[in-house]
Every structure is written in structure tokens, then in C-alpha cells.
Amino acid sequence: MGRRRAEPFSPGRIAGGSSGGTAAAIAAGLADAGLGTDTGGSCRILAACCGIVGFRPSTGRYPPAGLLRLSETFDTAGPLARTAADVARLDAAIAGGRPRAPVSLDGVRLAAPRAFYRDRLAPEVEEAFDAALARLRRAGCAIVERDVPGLADDLPAWHLTIVLHEAEHMWTAHAEREGLTLAALAESIATPRVREAFRALAAGGTPAEAEYRDAVAGRLPAARRALAAYLEETGAAAIVAPALPVLPPAAGPRSASEDELLFDLLTRAMLPATVGRQPSVCLPIGTAAAPVGLLLDGRPDEDGALLALAAAVELVVACE
């Protein structure tokens, strides 16, 4: 495993949510690598908050056995480590094969859309991202600044529709196998936000079947076609974007409305790769104040190529 040291940042900031303990331990040097899960961005959000590398593989690349799942459409395990090379080694151990060597960046095309991916950027994040793009250009990359046609603002809403509908069905069945109702299972959940979400599902808060069918049979394939066409038309090896629009938020209690707004903010740029079945990696680019992450969203089922690209990009954009 790689030996680069990555100290955790301020303990006053969140580690990013589910599997945050694993990410913080890796950042502190207590472990070389670990696994998280990614339904809407968790592995990559953790990486962005902790200054490490997080990877969402193409959906279906890893077997689902052993996962406690929310969504059969979107769930996957994902590696976390301090370097892209370490993530590639863990990916190879799970999926088989051997990691590829880093590629040359000379002539590599990267697409850098603004709409959807770069909404509401904090000044520190925008500065770090622009500096990373400048370094990539100097390394020989061609940056194509063009938006993704057809990527609509309602994507987070219909992604959540799919997740909630599938979660209700999966966890009702799980509860019944344990001799419980979904309502009783909800009361056993320690995390307040998750407990409230399951209470709502148990109380009939699941999206209607027609909404689910429209999302999974209409919106989802349309978004996948739009993203695939965009990468093809731009000739880009990957989409590059800021992972989070803000620095890792301060830890501490929040109201339900504040929590919901924060959730929407932190997951937004993660969702296109999630719905597009794309492999997606978050690399640290950093600031003096706190971590900043850079996303690379590749082409579906070209995970090895994306990880080889990430290893090369990491050398160029690494925190100075």
C-alpha cells in the first residue's frame, strides 16, 4: 500500500456521513484502505471531507453479497484509500485483474461542465478547482467547458424516488424475516435522520408506484443516454468537477430543515455518475483551511481506465 501520510483535518468538521469512521481512520494513517458504500455519493463525499481518495465503481462491478442495501438500482460498495494507486489495488482484489499503470495526460480531454456540477460553489472551492484545472492544462490536458444537454434539475428528486421506493420494499422484507414490522425496525435505528426517514417509510411515505415507474423506466434511461452522448460528443475521457460545493461543514446539531438542505448540497455533484452507472473517483486537491475534492466521472464499465487516469491526475493536482 502507498506510504503517503494524510493527517485528518479539523475534528470540528464532519467526516462525511455513512462509513465516516473508516474514512477518518484512513486519513489519520490508522488503516491503509477500507470499504464504504455509495448509493448517492457516500464514498466520494467521505473522501472529499477527509482529504483521501474515494471510488464508486460502475454499478454492478462488485457483487452485492453481504451489503445491507437501500436501492438495488444504485447501491455499490466502494474503496477508500490515501492514494489512487491503493484504490486501484483494492478494486483489482475485488473485481479481478491487475491495476493499470498511470496514463500520460498529454492530449487527454476532460469535460468540465458548469451547470448542475458547479452550482453554488464557495470561493475557496472555486479557487482550488480553478487552480487544479490550470495545472491539468499545463500537464497537457484539453479542458472542454461545455454543459451536459438534458441534465435536468429534477435529477435529485427522481433519484430519491427510486431509492425510497426500493428501500421500503427491501427493508419491509428484511424486518419481516426478523419478525418485525418496518415501524418497529425504524424505532431501533440510532441515527436520528435515518430513523426519521424509516419512520416516514413505515407511515406510508413511499413514492407512488407510478412515480417510481416513471423514474426508473423514463427519467433514468434518458439521463444515462444524455451522459453517454455527452462523453462521446466531447471526446472526453472523463467529466471533471468539484466534489463538494463547500468546505466540509462543521460538526454539530442541525434542525431537520438544515440537515435536508445540507444533504442536497453535498450529494448534488455525485448524482450524475450514480444514475449514469459511471465509475467516479474523488481526489484531494485541498486548501490551507480544509479538504477540497475533485471528481472524475468516467465511462461506464471502463473502471480500469478511469483509475489509471486518476493516478496520473493525482500527481498533478495533489495538495501543495
Task: Characterize the structure shown.
By secondary structure, this protein is of the alpha+beta class. The chain has a single domain, classed as Amidase signature (AS) domain (Amidase signature (AS) enzymes, Alpha-Beta Complex), CATH 3.90.1300. The chain is 45% helix and 11% strand. It has 11 helices and 8 strands. It has helices at residues 20-27, 42-50, 84-95, 123-138, 155-177, 182-187, 192-202, 209-234, 256-267, 271-275, 303-317, and strands at residues 33-37, 53-56, 77-81, 109-111, 142-144, 238-242, 280-284, 293-297. Strands 1-3-2-7-8-6-4-5 form an 8-stranded mixed beta sheet, with helices on both faces. A hairpin with an 8-residue loop joins strand 7 (280-284) and strand 8. Helix 1 (20-27) packs parallel to helix 2 (42-50), helix 3 (84-95) runs antiparallel to helix 11 and helix 5 (155-177) crosses helix 8. The longest helix is centred in the C-terminal third of the chain and has 26 residues, at 209-234. The chain is globular. Mean pLDDT is 91; it is low at 1-7.
Overall average pLDDT: 91
So what's the overall shape? globular
Rounded radius of gyration (Å):
19 Å
CATH architectural type: Alpha-Beta Complex
Low-confidence stretches: 1-7
Q: Could you provide a short overview of the structure?
A:
This protein has 320 residues and is α+β, with helices and mostly antiparallel strands.
Question: Could you give the topology of this structure?
Answer:
Layout: H1 20-27, E1 33-37, H2 42-50, E2 53-56, E3 77-81, H3 84-95, E4 109-111, H4 123-138, E5 142-144, H5 155-177, H6 182-187, H7 192-202, H8 209-234, E6 238-242, H9 256-267, H10 271-275, E7 280-284, E8 293-297, H11 303-317
Parallel strand pairs: 4-5, 4-6
Antiparallel strand pairs: 1-3, 2-3, 2-7, 6-8, 7-8
Helix pairs in contact: 1-2, 3-11, 5-8
